[in-house]
Amino acid sequence: MKLTAITSIKEFSALESEYDELLAQCSGKLLYVSFDYLLSWLTTIGAERPFTILVLRDREKLLGVCPLVSQSTAEQRLWGVRTTTFPGAGLWGYVDFV
Protein backbone atom coordinates (compact mmCIF):
# COMPACT_ATOMS: atom_id res chain seq x y z
CA MET A 1 0.00 0.00 0.00
CA LYS A 2 1.07 3.53 -0.72
CA LEU A 3 -0.08 6.83 0.77
CA THR A 4 0.53 9.95 -1.30
CA ALA A 5 -0.34 13.61 -0.81
CA ILE A 6 -1.97 15.78 -3.45
CA THR A 7 -1.53 19.52 -3.06
CA SER A 8 -2.77 20.96 -6.36
CA ILE A 9 -6.14 21.30 -8.06
CA LYS A 10 -4.63 19.79 -11.23
CA GLU A 11 -3.59 16.61 -9.39
CA PHE A 12 -6.97 16.35 -7.66
CA SER A 13 -8.86 16.87 -10.94
CA ALA A 14 -6.99 13.88 -12.41
CA LEU A 15 -8.65 11.66 -9.76
CA GLU A 16 -12.22 12.47 -10.76
CA SER A 17 -13.26 9.19 -12.41
CA GLU A 18 -11.49 7.00 -9.84
CA TYR A 19 -12.92 9.10 -7.00
CA ASP A 20 -16.46 8.78 -8.36
CA GLU A 21 -16.04 5.00 -8.74
CA LEU A 22 -14.81 4.71 -5.16
CA LEU A 23 -17.64 6.90 -3.83
CA ALA A 24 -20.21 4.75 -5.68
CA GLN A 25 -19.07 1.82 -3.50
CA CYS A 26 -19.67 3.74 -0.26
CA SER A 27 -22.89 3.45 1.71
CA GLY A 28 -23.22 7.11 2.78
CA LYS A 29 -23.25 8.97 -0.54
CA LEU A 30 -23.70 12.57 0.53
CA LEU A 31 -23.14 15.78 -1.38
CA TYR A 32 -20.38 17.00 0.92
CA VAL A 33 -18.02 14.17 0.00
CA SER A 34 -18.70 14.19 -3.74
CA PHE A 35 -15.88 15.07 -6.12
CA ASP A 36 -17.81 18.02 -7.57
CA TYR A 37 -18.51 19.49 -4.13
CA LEU A 38 -14.87 19.16 -3.01
CA LEU A 39 -13.50 20.64 -6.22
CA SER A 40 -15.95 23.55 -6.01
CA TRP A 41 -15.14 24.14 -2.34
CA LEU A 42 -11.38 24.05 -2.91
CA THR A 43 -11.57 26.51 -5.81
CA THR A 44 -13.99 28.99 -4.19
CA ILE A 45 -14.50 29.04 -0.41
CA GLY A 46 -11.19 27.32 0.28
CA ALA A 47 -9.16 28.96 -2.48
CA GLU A 48 -6.89 30.81 -0.05
CA ARG A 49 -6.41 27.87 2.31
CA PRO A 50 -3.61 25.33 1.95
CA PHE A 51 -4.97 21.83 1.34
CA THR A 52 -3.71 18.28 1.21
CA ILE A 53 -5.61 15.33 -0.15
CA LEU A 54 -4.27 12.04 1.12
CA VAL A 55 -4.67 9.19 -1.37
CA LEU A 56 -4.33 5.54 -0.37
CA ARG A 57 -3.64 2.95 -3.07
CA ASP A 58 -2.93 -0.74 -3.21
CA ARG A 59 -0.74 -0.94 -6.28
CA GLU A 60 -2.84 1.11 -8.73
CA LYS A 61 -6.25 0.58 -7.09
CA LEU A 62 -7.64 3.59 -5.24
CA LEU A 63 -8.69 2.57 -1.72
CA GLY A 64 -9.30 5.85 0.05
CA VAL A 65 -9.21 9.63 -0.14
CA CYS A 66 -8.91 12.03 2.78
CA PRO A 67 -9.29 15.73 1.89
CA LEU A 68 -7.86 18.12 4.49
CA VAL A 69 -7.53 21.90 4.68
CA SER A 70 -5.43 24.06 6.95
CA GLN A 71 -7.07 27.09 8.50
CA SER A 72 -6.79 29.41 11.46
CA THR A 73 -8.81 32.06 13.20
CA ALA A 74 -7.42 35.57 13.78
CA GLU A 75 -6.62 34.59 17.38
CA GLN A 76 -4.85 31.40 16.30
CA ARG A 77 -2.75 33.35 13.79
CA LEU A 78 -1.43 35.52 16.63
CA TRP A 79 0.07 32.37 18.15
CA GLY A 80 1.08 30.76 14.86
CA VAL A 81 -1.47 27.96 15.28
CA ARG A 82 -3.20 26.26 12.36
CA THR A 83 -6.00 23.72 12.46
CA THR A 84 -6.31 20.86 9.99
CA THR A 85 -9.85 19.74 9.22
CA PHE A 86 -12.15 18.53 6.47
CA PRO A 87 -13.27 21.06 3.84
CA GLY A 88 -16.55 22.58 5.01
CA ALA A 89 -16.20 21.42 8.61
CA GLY A 90 -18.16 23.71 10.88
CA LEU A 91 -20.27 24.95 7.96
CA TRP A 92 -22.06 21.75 6.99
CA GLY A 93 -23.51 18.88 8.97
CA TYR A 94 -21.53 16.07 7.39
CA VAL A 95 -17.95 15.87 6.16
CA ASP A 96 -15.81 12.75 5.95
CA PHE A 97 -13.22 10.83 4.00
CA VAL A 98 -13.93 8.30 1.26
Describe this structure in words.
This protein is of the alpha+beta class and 98 residues long. The chain has helices at 9-13, 16-24, 35-43, 74-78; strands at residues 2-6, 51-58, 61-71, 83-85. Strand 2 and strand 3 (61-71) form a beta hairpin. The model has no long low-confidence stretch (mean pLDDT 83).
Name the features.
98 residues, alpha+beta, four-stranded antiparallel β-sheet, 4 helices, 4 strands
How much strand content do the residues show? 25-35%
Instruction: Please tell me what the overall shape is.
Output: globular
Across the major sheet, the strand order is 1-2-3-4
Q: How large, in whole angstroms, is the Cα Rg?
A: 14 Å
Output the structural class. alpha+beta
N-to-C series of helices and strands: EHHHEEHE
Find the count of extended strands (DSSP E, 2+ residues). 4
What gap, in angstroms, lies between the N and C termini? 16 Å
Helical content stands at 25-40%
Strand count, sense and closure of the main sheet? 4 strands, antiparallel
Overall mean pLDDT? 83
Q: Indicate the low-confidence ranges by residue numbers.
A: none
* Total DSSP helices: 4
